[in-house]
Design brief:
Radius of gyration: 22 Å
Helix content: under 10%
CATH superfamily: TolB, C-terminal domain
Strand order of the largest sheet: 2-3-4-23-22-21-20
Number of strands: 32
Number of domains: 1
Distance between the termini: 50 Å
Largest sheet: 7 strands, mixed
Structural class: mainly beta
CATH class: Mainly Beta
Strand content: 35-45%
């Protein structure tokens, strides 16, 4: 059985405008259906917060004693970091100071061994659960890293970072729950409950994400290519440990928090538009044409032109404290010549622009805490209050696990 949550509400509201922080104006209104928070204006550049490094676990280029390839890690309530190393198929546990305290598991199919990592989560008691699609099971470990048991899970589509948990300890698999009309899609993605022993329960469909990203496609007899515009709008959704869905429309910059009970909160953000400069559009158009013609040599441009204005909301994630981090559009910058990556094929255009990573952070009830600049090659994996944990890669592609502090912290002048 599939449970449908409340539909996404995108109605506007205007009442009782009040000055916000800096150049922002904030309007809040409760209706019978939703709480609307409208935030207009821009955060001054001088007020953009920074991430200050507190701790880093960074193996050297010749160090094979730690991790070498990382796509996921989790942080427990004691500040320990559980890092899954894809090369060794094992978990390395580091204390809050970054000292290795334990190795968990290894490659294999035996008890406590791993065939793959399709998502892992820290449980309320400090233990860990991991979805091992390679062995078609979910494995459970206690807070010290000792293996407890495995639950068989039916095989099928299993992506990465596909296991979730709520505050009650209920586990969910993130997977396709319904087919779509889009032939490029694996189906509508939602959640499936996993009970004790691996029993599969209800599927839960998130509220309808309001927008599909524009794709440019090419077809041949046995292959199909699809590329989206870098700055095109899309829809985003996340599931929080409080059991709340958060969904967003990247084009209108509307974020809706849909609780299990009570009224949804709609955050409507209106920053100044950010243009995509002509040179950057020309390079991306050339790259799309080059890629499409690798599949379909006679391919010509189809579909709308590339956007001239960036989607104001590029991506979204939710921290374990419920704070909503939305990556916002900002002007692109030229990549220094020394950092340019020449393509393997000299006929392909070289990417010469990049957009700095900047996030706006909101509380679940719609308060905009501020903007945060994130360093290059840094992917936020977890956040809690003023602390941020990220996966950082250096110029050689080597991974590091880094803990940052937001400075100045939330609430600081």
């Amino acid at each position: 059985m599939t449970r449908l949550l409340l539909p996404l509400l995108l109605l506007g509201a205007c009442a009782g405008e009040s000055p916000g922080v800096g150049a922002l104006t904030v309007t809040r209104e409760a209706t019978a259906e939703s709480v609307f928070v409208t935030i207009t204006g821009d955060v001054p550049a001088a007020d953009v917060r920074q991430l200050v490094e507190e701790m880093a676990i960074a193996p050297g280029v010749d160090d094979i004693s730690l991790f070498t390839t990382v796509r996921e890690f989790d942080v427990d309530q004691w500040g320990r970091t559980w890092v899954f190393d894809n090369d060794s198929q094992s978990i390395l546990v580091f204390d809050a100071d970054g000292t290795l305290v334990r190795r968990v598991g290894r490659r294999g199919a035996g008890p406590g061994e791993f065939g793959s990592n399709n998502g892992m989560v820290i449980l309320p008691d400090g233990g860990l659960a991991i979805w091992d699609g390679g062995n078609a099971r979910v494995s459970l470990f206690d807070s010290a890293g000792a293996f407890l048991e495995s639950w068989p899970i039916p095989s099928g589509f299993a992506g990465s970072i596909g296991l979730l948990v709520d505050h009650a300890g209920q586990l969910y698999l993130r997977r396709s729950i319904a087919a779509t009309a889009n032939p490029l899609s694996l189906g509508r993605t939602g959640l499936v409950e996993v009970g004790a022993g691996g029993e599969i329960g209800d599927s839960i469909a998130p509220p309808v994400v309001p927008r599909d990203r524009q794709m440019y496609t090419a077809e041949a007899a046995r292959s199909r290519m699809a590329m989206g515009a870098t700055y095109g709008a899309g829809g985003h959704w996340s599931f929080t440990r409080a059991g709340t869905f958060v969904v967003a429309d990247g084009e209108t910059f509307r974020i809706t928090v849909v609780p299990r009970s009570g009224l949804p909160t709609v955050i409507a953000r209106s920053p100044s538009p950010v243009p995509v400069e002509a040179e950057e559009r020309a390079i991306e158009e050339a790259q799309i044409i080059w890629t499409a013609r690798r599949t379909q040599p006679e391919w010509t441009w189809s579909g709308p032109p590339l956007p001239t204005v960036k989607a104001p909301l590029m991506s979204m994630r939710v921290g374990r404290d419920g704070q909503i981090w939305g990556q916002v559009a900002v002007p692109s910058e030229l990549i220094p010549e020394a950092e340019l990556t020449p393509p393997r094929d000299s006929t392909r255009a070289v990417t010469r622009h990049r957009m700095p990573h900047v996030f706006e952070v909101f509380t679940p009830d719609g308060e905009l805490l501020g903007r945060v600049a994130v360093p290059e090659r840094t992917r936020i994996m977890e956040s809690d209050g003023n602390l941020v944990w990220a996966l950082v890669t250096d110029e050689d592609g080597l991974p590091a696990v880094v803990r940052y502090r937001v400075e100045p912290g939330w609430g600081a002048p």
